[in-house]
């Protein structure tokens, strides 16, 4: 239990506060573009 808490604190470090949300947002935008009705490049 304590190690899980420590891991969460480490993952919430300064680099991950920016990197993880950015990666998630980019993945969302790619999926949105891939499955958009205007996309005919499939």
List the helices and strands and how they pair.
Elements: H1 2-11, H2 14-34
Describe this protein's structure.
- The chain is mainly alpha-helical and 42 residues long.
- The protein has one domain.
- Helices cover 74% and strands 0% of the residues.
- It has 2 helices and no strands.
- The protein is elongated and about 50 Å long.
- The mean pLDDT is 84.
Can you count the beta strands? 0
The rounded distance between the terminal residues' Cα atoms is 46 Å
Elements, N to C (H/E): HH
* Structural class by helix and strand composition: mainly alpha
Average pLDDT number: 84
Overall outline = elongated
Helix fraction? over 70%
Beta-strand residue percentage:
under 5%
- The domain tally reads 1
Count, helices? 2
In the predicted model, the low-confidence regions spanning at least 5 consecutive residues are none
Radius of gyration: 16 Å
The description of the largest β-sheet is: none
Short description:
By secondary structure, the chain is mostly helical.
Highlighted features:
single chain, 42 residues, mainly alpha, 2 helices, 74% helix, elongated
């Amino acid at each position: 239990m304590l190690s899980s808490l420590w891991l969460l604190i480490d993952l919430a470090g300064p680099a991950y506060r920016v990197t993880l949300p950015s990666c998630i947002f980019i993945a969302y935008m790619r999926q949105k573009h891939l499955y958009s009705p205007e996309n005919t490049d499939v």
